[in-house]
Amino acid sequence: MGGLIAATAALSVVLLALAAAHVRLRIRLRALTRRMEAFLVSGRRQLTFSVREDALAPLQNAAAELENQVLLAREQRQAERRAARGLTADISHQLKTPLSSLRLFCEMDAGPHADEQLTQIERMERLIHALLRLERLCADGYAFTFREHDVAALVGEAWQGLASVYPRKRLSVEGSAVIRCDGKWLGEAYLNLLKNACEHTPEDGEITVRLEQTPSAFFSSVADNGGGVDAKELPYLFDRFYRAHSRETKGTGLGLAIVKEIIHRHHGSVHAENSPGGLRMVITLPLMDSTASPSCEIVR
């Protein structure tokens, strides 16, 4: 009988020890999870390699190695972007200088085809400007500063630059929103969307911008009555140099690609869809407040 009691007591001690070890393991696992989540949010390294000989050590060491790889990849990407910015600046100088000289000679010669030559030079200059702008955006070559802006006002400012070029087009803005964004760049995104709509609608075309703000997100759409595009072409409209075969266009094929990159820099998304009688561009942005961390707010 005494032996049974002793065995039971020993078993109880073992079970208590196992339970305590299990609790400690769960506590360490929760702590490890929190530190990994902190790394994903802040981008700063949180984990160190474990020298313990327990079941959790291999997992912590694997996570620490993965964080190292992420940081190395991030540093390499930043170095590539810096190199791309330098290359972009060099290309800009190399291309703009001979074009300016060519324009000057065309104006001085004033030959029978001077007007057409100058038109083509201007087209080339616009194309180069748009391409270099897009490349600098992709390489993080511009500083984005986030402040509160009235989006309806940004749309209105963008339309002012187009109203004189398209006097018979009609714009209507529905809804309102005040969000933290880079006003200059979001305004340029709307300018490109409105210009795209103007280019693909009748002379008296109608364009509708809708704005909606929720506690966590901002939604906007730019719709026209230009007839839409083939459904197969919708996924490619924001690719650089892509031109819809079902729509006649005179642009460079870069405006919507610039819009996509601007929205991406705002941590949002943009897509195209056919609407009754036309095409609709839909923007979705997460809302950021003044306490957003630097990893969530791109400010240089």
In short, what is this structure?
53% of the residues lie in helices and 15% in strands.
What can you tell me about this protein's structure?
This protein has 300 residues and is an alpha+beta fold. The chain has helices at 2-42, 57-109, 114-138, 151-163, 183-199, 255-265; strands at 147-150, 170-174, 178-181, 206-213, 217-224, 269-275, 278-286. It has a five-stranded mixed β-sheet. A two-stranded antiparallel sheet has the order 1-3. Helix 2 runs antiparallel to helix 3, helix 3 packs parallel to helix 6 (255-265) and helix 4 (151-163) packs across helix 5. The protein is elongated and about 115 Å long.
Low-confidence stretches: 291-300
Give the strand tally: 7
Radius of gyration, whole Å: 29 Å
Report the span from N to C terminus. 78 Å
- SS-derived structural category: alpha+beta
Strand content: 15-25%
How do the helices and strands follow one another from N- to C-terminus?
HHHEHEEHEEHEE
Average pLDDT level: 80
Number of distinct helices? 6
Main beta-sheet strand count, sense and barrel state:
5 strands, mixed
Q: Overall 3D geometry? A: elongated
Give the helix proportion (percent range). 40-55%
Strand order of the biggest β-sheet: 2-4-5-7-6
